[in-house]
Design a protein that fits this description.
about 250 residues, alpha/beta, Rossmann fold, two-stranded antiparallel ribbon, 12 strands
Length: about 250
């Protein structure tokens, strides 16, 4: 069942991510960029610490100083054009800012608990390789029971329960192909090299990396959720199993 390639373009042709909520914790969006045309977008930003505490507020002042958040949001919206995107601008530097990340993650959990934001899919890009951070991450993510979590694969991330881990697959020729690297661990390969994207300061770039593969798979997952009404990791596992068994035939 492993290392199989699934072609999903035809399977998803009547879906667009309609009414699926995707939350992104990243570096902001260049809203004035001519490649950014997201139909439903809500943006938030994490403010600088005051009285030793961060705050997150709804805002359109989410300029992206890195370029990464712009690229991630663009790729998700290209794959799932009718998904609802909630972007939380959290990072200002191209480096690890774990205190900000965990504040944003906890804030999102509380927003969902209070029914302010429904997060169907959470797209994460930040990687970590620390036991303490792993435990902290597990504690928060375990509470987000109604959210499917997509994050880049590494030796720590795959130990998180009920997450979808994404690798770059060099076997793929299209964003509408995925490689099932390890079915039981939900380790999935997606396109992630030499991808044209909008970038900071209204520029353009070609990018490679697991985080970009994550965003492409997140878009595909939104369309799978819309079409097959899957809401849990377990239902995704069953769907992948059926796809592997039936090839590209329509699932009835």
């Amino acid at each position: 069942m492993n290392n199989k390639i699934l072609k999903v373009r035809e399977l998803l042709k009547n879906s667009s991510g309609q009414a699926i909520n995707i939350c992104i914790i990243d570096s902001g969006i260049e809203l004035s960029h001519d490649w950014i045309n997201i139909k439903f977008l809500k943006t938030y930003k994490l403010t600088n610490k005051t009285e030793n505490e961060y705050k997150i507020i709804e805002s359109t002042k989410v300029t992206d100083p890195i370029g990464h958040g712009t690229a991630i949001s663009f790729l998700i919206s290209k794959i799932a054009p009718n998904a609802r995107i909630f972007h939380i601008k959290t990072f200002d530097r191209n480096e690890e800012e774990f205190d900000k990340f965990f504040f944003a993650l906890q804030w999102l959990y509380l927003q969902q608990k209070q029914n302010n934001i429904r997060c169907d899919i959470l797209n994460l890009s930040l990687g970590f390789n620390n036991e303490n951070l792993l435990e902290k991450m597990e504690d928060i993510l375990s509470k987000m029971k109604e959210t499917m979590i997509v994050l880049p694969y590494n030796n720590y991330h795959h130990r998180l329960k009920k997450t979808i881990n994404i690798e770059i697959s060099k076997k793929l020729k299209s964003a509408f192909q995925i490689e099932i690297i390890d079915y039981k661990k939900l380790l999935i390969g997606a396109l992630g090299e030499n991808i044209p994207v909008p970038w900071k300061e209204n520029s353009y770039a070609r990018v490679s990396g697991k985080s970009y593969a994550c965003s492409i798979f997140t878009g595909l997952l939104a369309r799978l959720k819309e079409k097959f009404r899957i809401n849990t990791i377990e239902e995704l596992e069953i769907l992948i199993y059926k796809l592997l068994k039936e090839g590209e035939k329509r699932i009835k």
